[in-house]
Design goal:
Elements: E1 12-17, H1 37-47, E2 56-65, E3 74-81, E4 87-93, E5 96-106, H2 120-124, E6 129-130, E7 151-158, E8 161-166, E9 179-181, H3 184-204, E10 215-227, E11 231-233, E12 238-248, E13 251-260, E14 263-278
Antiparallel strand pairs: 1-3, 2-5, 2-10, 3-4, 4-5, 6-7, 7-8, 8-12, 9-11, 10-14, 12-13, 13-14
């Protein structure tokens, strides 16, 4: 597909220009600006014709982030009907497929559906001990910096997961009129995964030597995500629980659950790819 947005297979073609600089790249990452995956999805969704009332983003059946998106990139978005009433999205840079997704829009179930969160129990299941006093400063665990850093502290840790506190800063580019879209929960989960992986490397290296320290990591996929709120108030604290469910070299898969004040906000699965060198 050309940058002009030529349609494929009857899909609607929409040009999508990525800013050459600005707040979407601040803190992600210092010295190596990369568009966050959730920012790409957010830009794509907001470029579509306005959805009818009551058609908020309520789920992501599948998201694959295949290529890095850099400042100034010119992409083309193709949107078409997906399975079961969903919406299929494809983003290309020229002929190169950058990302694709199947999302659902409709009535968000709301807090009453907390018990139905598909991954909440799984992500919360590990017997977590309170975070040890020796947990390093987040600067030593995450390459993210404000305003793109959402994780604030480690609450508890287990062999196969952890729980963190997180919030969307008021200065975040996702905070619009005091609220961020619910899809920021995916980034919270990815950052919690990065913290877990950095702690695991640190434990293996006894806090020193090769392997310890933050590494650039990428959110490369999500599946089975369900949102139980249309947005999260900027500045409001959330709890993020993750559990490792799959590991293949640098590719890791996690079940996650995000709640605010004990009420489910989002749950599902994310996949991350960690680079081999320190950030």
């Amino acid at each position: 597909m050309s940058p002009a947005g030529a349609a494929r297979g009857g899909a609607v073609g929409i040009p999508l220009a990525i800013p050459s600089s600005g707040p979407l790249f601040e803190g992600h990452f210092p010295g190596r600006p990369i568009l966050p995956g959730i920012a790409l999805l957010d830009l794509a969704l907001r470029s579509l014709p306005a959805a009818p009332a009551g058609a908020d983003l309520c789920g992501i059946d599948r998201l694959r982030l295949r290529r890095l998106v850099l400042p100034g990139d010119h992409l083309a978005l193709a949107a078409s009907a997906g399975p079961d009433g969903g919406l299929r999205l494809e983003l290309r840079r020229g002929e190169e497929l950058v990302a694709d997704a199947v999302v659902s829009r409709g009535d968000v179930p709301g807090p009453a559906a907390e018990s139905e969160a598909p991954a909440a129990g799984h992500a919360s299941a590990p017997a977590m001990a309170a975070a040890p006093a020796g947990v390093p400063d987040l600067d030593l665990l995450l390459p993210h910096r404000p305003p793109m850093r959402f994780v604030e502290a480690v609450e508890a840790e287990a062999e196969d997961g952890l729980a963190c506190t997180a919030r969307v800063p008021g200065a975040s580019p996702f905070a619009r009129e005091g609220e961020a879209p619910a899809l920021v929960a995916i980034e919270m989960a990815a950052q919690a995964a990065a913290v877990f992986e950095a702690l695991r490397r640190g434990h293996a290296a006894a806090g020193e030597g090769p392997g310890a320290g933050p590494r650039i990591g990428y959110l490369v996929g999500a599946s089975g995500v369900r949102f139980f709120t249309a947005g999260l108030p900027a500045g409001a604290g959330c709890r993020v629980a993750i559990r490792l469910t799959g590991l293949a070299g640098p590719l890791s898969t996690y079940a996650f659950a995000v709640d605010r004040g004990g009420v489910a906000a989002a749950a599902g699965t994310v996949s991350t790819w960690i680079t081999a060198t320190d950030a």
